[in-house]
Amino acid sequence: MSALVLGHKNPDTDSIISALSAANLYRGRGIDVSSAAQGEPAPETAFVLERFKLTAPEVVKSVSGRELYLVDYSDLAQAPDDFKEAKLLGIVDHHKLGDVTSDAPLECWIQPVGCSNTIIYLMHKYYKVDIPANLAGGMLCAILSDTVLFKSPTCTQADKEAAEALAKIAGISDLNALGMEMFKAKSNLDASPRDLIFRDFKDFDMGGRKIGIGQLELISLDMVSPKLEQELNAELGKVKGEGRHSAILVLTDIMKEGSRVLLCSDDESAVLKALGASSKDAFLPGVMSRKKQVVPPLQQTFK
Ligand code: MG
Ligand code: MG
Ligand code: MG
Fold first, then answer.
1. Can you name the residues that pair with 109 across neighbouring β-strands?
2. Residues 205 and 287 in one domain
3. pTM across the whole model
4. CATH number for the domain harbouring residue 81
5. DSSP secondary structure letter of residue 292
6. Of 184, 216, 250, which marks where a domain is finished?
7. How many angstroms separate the alpha carbon of residue 226 from the centre of ligand 2?
8. 255 CA → ligand 3 middle, Å
9. DSSP secondary structure string for all residues of 61-114
10. 229 CA from centroid of ligand 1 (Å)
């Protein structure tokens, strides 16, 4: 059976496209793999797949007995529940080092860049494997998404160079226009409050506490009506009640380049203090990255 190239739970564009692009790379090296995802594409990803005529990876929830390459994560909490019954062959990631481990030596490509697809682009260069034009378009979108059009503090020179090279292969000249089309698709709030919270949601273990953090990146925070905000708050209460210390939803305004948070927590004031928010409604200018600006201060507070 072929090895699975598998992204994280609640897949985003980077994790879905990474499963496709890393599979292209491994196949180019003669490794038998198939792309997989732990869920259906969210609206932004559906737009990207359609725009570049790419096929969504097969949805896989159980990996018992399979060989695995992880893309875009290395945290157990983001892996399938039976991950420990699989054999880990490799990791490509750009997050903090997680808590997965392996029984045998494995291939790791982990770099502090803005997007897993930047690393996968560099791997293609290193192994001299070609990237088809449509796949390059998808990889470009993953970089635009993860770096929020190069505006996120996670963005590096390597991301910009990879995006430029991929745009050339894909025949795309206006990156801003493509990015805005994508973010319009992403700003779709036509879903249940629960689906909105879990669209891009990650659980973290912080000093034995389970802290769940979702993020919605929107073209404007005005899109969130008072009624929707009330519904999201009520649903966060339920999400917290499912065994979590805190359930947090970061609402990010990609045009104004900042965020505000909705939360339900056993220690609301500590969460707000960690994030530098003077009150629940405070707008946090410049806060765009969960991995760099939200998770580390919380981890520091709740270690
Ligand atoms: Mg991701
Ligand atoms: Mg990513
Ligand atoms: Mg993201």
1. 92
2. yes
3. 0.89
4. 3.90.1640.10
5. I
6. 184
7. 31
8. 16
9. ---TT-EEEEES---GGGS-TTGGGSEEEEEEE-SS--S---SS--EEEE-SSS
10. 25
